[in-house]
Design brief:
Number of helices: 36
Structural class: alpha+beta
Family: Belongs to the GlnD family.
Protein name: Bifunctional uridylyltransferase/uridylyl-removing enzyme
GO molecular function, one term: [protein-PII] uridylyltransferase activity
Pfam family, one: NTP_transf_2
Number of strands: 16
Distance between the termini: 52 Å
Shape: globular
Cofactor: Mg(2+)
């Protein structure tokens, strides 16, 4: 007896939309209650049975049952008899000829009834010939037809189609396999080849339900199987592997069923919105992030197992269906492994009784560029021995030697490390790696789990050594070429986040892990200290570049004192760049690259000049002015008018801008003949990786708030601001902006639009109290308690302020208005967005142009906290 039979409420005797909707709601509630007590396969199949019953009743109601020329056929997942609460109901209405007007009207009434019941119906009305023709041209249609099931209607017509679909003239087994494999490769590429995202799609991601279905489709086409179990009889799966595949499918089904119930729609993405409730429904507890973490770790383990089984079986199918194994050249690599075509294969089933052969396998992959993967029989052996390991691979001296050899190999971080990660060998080698497998990161900054982020960091580090990426990372490439021990960089990458999720400072804990690793692997004391220092300080450079004024010689000197020497600087720069780029594909931009490069070069120069002789600010000012003046004089400007303008500008300006920027600003100010109107310049070409906006205007209350509101209205992101008021009361303010996709503002019309908006806002024309856009779906899932901290600064007459808050729309504009309200002047701003979190730094002064008093700081903190709290609540 199926669970569907225990839902003992019959359909209403007479059709009415309200009665049917009530019946659907009761069934939905019944399934939600049964979720905790019934096997998921029963729930999924009972849903399909329930829909069968509804369709047959409505088919009768629309008088379609009297028409013997139509077959009502379930296809796709519904054809398999599997439906989740809001899955699509895919139908084929097979006709012997094109429907007449009466048939069309009846069919339209039938489909409309299904839509009225809020069913996601995908339907087509086709003749036998049309169906076959379209199926031959479209692999998706062909796949749906493989799983068709007659619901009611013309049985003969259905059987004719079924016979034709199973014939080689429709799709040969070879052509079908190649098309499905290509389809899977394209689908995986859409998800960057990984399911280890923070909001994965459990159906389409690598290792998801679609990968299980692909196995079934190929098997059904080749062997005409109805169930996956039949692959055991064909010796394509062992009984254990079959059970594993069924368990994996059951867990993914449970998650999908739960997601549908929580979302109230056909949702296959494990979105932040539904993760806590889904975790509780699945029995992982109700303790927030901890529950989600438990659920997601199991999910990531599941998709890893599915990926391995999918890869194994598709390889088996390839050999069987395409007869590819008969054509392959076999060459012996050593006593343990051979090369079969482009796949490495163990020469006997006991090869991994020697545990070091697990590492030797990957050394061969690094050492032989012809190897593109691991043979399916060897993947099976890896899976078997992985389960039987009684300790860590690093416990064995031979394994330790091979691991270091692999790290030092020029191609060790190419395919070899990717496959070590994929097949769980990194986790089998390093116990700490097991802790970060599938480790969630609950923010919008990190797009991947900790282990996948680290894997991507290692790949980024490896790219520095490749000629084809030299133009992408020229400075890193030059540095790595001269490194005597690039493996130390890889080890720092492996350990930099390895302590996440343990509690405490992950940098410090990771440094301790790195020291233990170095001791076990007998690395030198110097190498051990360098790796540990890099792990402990892997955030130092990015924090300094993005939050401090790197044009201030004192900031550079402070950073250089922490780094201490050029060797550490080289390693840290390469690690930092790779780390940021591996965090989130959308967060890297040329502006960040420019900041890091500037800090690197300034620190390198400080080391080479000798830290005891840092460049004096006055020397930098004189140097920039002496370079800029001749360029202006060549443009027919008179020296006296240039110097007269410069005399009204504060000296700091000439230290913060390059000679070219000074020339650009000066020439336009001297040509500006309408002093009561603002001068706005937008750089046509990128300056240091961003679009620079320069504003010269008479200072006024709330100027900063107006300017950021103008930029906010044009939907650009602000990354940096330099706010300066001259001795004559004119403001000279600069913003570095980028489009929301991280690109510079390249369109002339877009540049003009930004210029016009700034001019209008400064002149007070727009209303600053306009309604702000709402928080995005993802942002609503996060809370960032407002934090206002006053930091010790390098300047006696200035106060440094750090503000951390949820990155709500219009945040900067609101902050600007608070500063105005409290009589605070802004001199510089560093705007940093880390996922959902805004971390902004301001250099400010009071109305007397001095540092804020303790009382003024307290008042400003109160007002800011109040404003930021209101924003979050709103």
């Amino acid at each position: 007896m199926t669970q569907a039979l225990s839902f003992n409420r019959a359909l209403p005797e007479h059709y009415s939309l309200d009665a049917y909707k009530k019946h659907f709601a009761e069934f939905q509630e019944f399934q939600a209650r049964a979720f905790h007590s019934q096997p998921i396969n029963i729930l999924v199949k009972s849903r399909a049975s329930f829909i069968d019953e509804v369709l047959l009743e409505l088919w009768q109601h629309c008088a379609l049952a009297k028409d013997k020329a139509i077959s009502l056929i379930a296809v796709g997942g519904y054809g398999r008899g599997e439906l989740h609460p809001y899955s699509d109901v895919d139908l084929l209405l097979l006709v012997d000829k094109r429907p007449d007007s009466n048939q069309q009207e009846a069919i339209a009434r039938f489909i409309t009834m299904l839509w009225d019941l809020r069913l996601e119906v995908g339907h087509s009305v086709r003749t036998y010939k049309e169906t076959l023709s379209l199926g031959k041209d479209d692999i998706t249609i062909a796949t749906n037809l493989l799983e068709m099931r007659l619901l009611t209607g013309n049985k003969t017509l259905f059987q004719e189609l079924q016979t034709a679909v199973n014939a080689d003239s429709f799709w040969t087994s070879q052509a079908f396999f190649q098309a499905k494999r290509h389809e899977q490769q394209q689908r995986h590429a859409q998800y960057h080849g990984t399911a280890y995202n923070l909001e994965p799609n459990l159906k389409a991601n690598p290792g998801g339900l679609r990968d299980i279905q692909t196995i079934g489709w190929v098997a059904k086409r080749h062997f005409n199987t109805r169930t996956m179990r039949e692959l055991v009889a064909y010796q394509y799966l062992t009984e254990d592997e079959y059970q594993e595949l069924i368990e994996c499918e059951a867990y993914l089904w449970q998650m999908r069923f739960s997601l549908h119930l929580e979302a109230g729609r056909n949702e296959n993405r494990i979105l932040f919105d539904y993760q806590p409730a889904a975790a509780e429904r699945l029995g992982f507890g109700s303790d927030g992030k901890a529950s989600v973490e438990r659920m997601m770790k199991r999910f990531f383990r599941t998709v890893q197992r599915v990926s391995e089984l999918n890869e194994m079986l598709l390889q088996h199918f390839e050999g069987s269906i395409l007869n590819s194994q008969q054509k392959l050249k076999v060459s012996q690599l050593d006593d343990y492994f051979e090369l079969q075509g482009h796949l490495i294969k163990a020469r006997d089933s006991a090869v991994f009784a020697r545990r070091d052969n697990l590492l030797r396998l990957f050394w061969h992959i690094a050492n032989n560029s012809n190897i593109t993967g691991v043979h399916s029989t060897t993947i099976r052996l890896i899976r078997q021995v992985r389960r039987r390991l009684m300790g860590d691979l690093q416990d064995y001296e031979a394994c330790r030697q091979l691991f270091l050899t692999l790290l030092r190999h020029p191609r060790g971080m190419d395919l070899a490390v990717t496959l070590m990660h994929r097949y769980g060998i990194l986790a089998a080698y390093l116990p700490q790696w097991r802790n970060i497998e599938g480790q969630m990161q609950f923010d919008l900054f990190h797009a991947y789990t900790v282990d996948e982020h680290t894997h991507r960091l290692l790949k980024n580090l490896y790219k520095y050594s490749l000629a084809e990426h030299e133009s992408e990372f020229p400075l890193c490439t030059a540095i790595v070429k001269k490194m005597e021990k690039p493996e130390l960089l890889y080890l720092a990458g492996i350990f930099h986040d390895i302590a996440k999720g343990r509690g405490g400072d992950h940098s410090e804990l990771g440094g301790m892990d790195a020291r233990e690793f170095a001791k076990l692997h007998k690395l030198s004391e110097f190498d051990s200290k360098l790796i540990a220092w890099l792990v402990e300080n892997h955030l130092l450079m990015s924090v300094t570049a993005q939050r401090r004024d790197i044009h201030d010689p004192e900031v550079v000197a402070e950073f250089a004192a922490k780094v201490r020497d050029e060797t550490r600087l080289n390693y840290l720069y390469c690690l930092t760049l790779a780390d940021i780029r591996a965090t989130n594909d959308t967060l890297w931009n040329d502006w960040k690259g420019s900041l890091l490069r500037e800090l690197f070069l300034a620190t390198q120069k400080a080391f080479r000049r000798g830290l005891e002789k840092p460049m004096d600010l006055r020397d930098l000012i004189r140097e920039n002015q002496s370079e800029a003046l001749p360029m202006l004089l060549r443009q027919t400007f008179i020296e006296s008018e240039v110097l007269q303008l410069w005399s009204r500008i504060k000296a700091d300006y000439f230290a913060r801008y390059s000679p070219k920027q000074i020339v650009w600003h000066t020439e336009h100010i001297l040509k500006h003949k309408t002093p009561n109107e603002p001068l706005v310049l937008v750089s046509k070409a990128p300056i240091k990786g961003g679009t620079q906006v320069f504003v010269y205007t008479k200072d006024q209350p709330g100027l900063f708030a107006k300017m950021v509101a103008a930029l906010d209205s044009k939907k650009v992101n602000i990354f940096d601001a330099q706010i300066m008021t001259n001795k004559d009361g004119y403001a000279m303010d600069t913003f570095v902006i980028l489009e929301q996709n991280g690109e510079t503002v390249n369109s002339p019309s877009r540049q003009q639009s930004i210029k016009k908006a700034l001019e209008q806002y400064i002149l007070g024309k727009p209303d600053l109290s306009r309604q702000k856009p709402k928080l995005s779906r993802q942002m609503r899932q996060f809370t960032v308690p407002p934090k206002v901290v006053f930091l010790p600064g390098n300047t006696r007459h200035r106060t440094m302020l750090e503000i951390a808050a949820l990155d709500t729309p219009g945040l900067l504009s609101d902050l600007g208005q608070v500063f105005q309200q409290c009589g605070v002047n802004i001199h510089a701003a560093k705007i940093t967005t880390i996922g959902e979190r805004a971390e902004d730094f301001f250099l400010i002064s009071n109305a007397e142009d001095d540092a804020l008093t303790t009382e003024q700081q307290s008042q400003l903190r109160r007002v800011l906290i109040s404003q930021l709290s209101q924003q979050t609540e709103g």
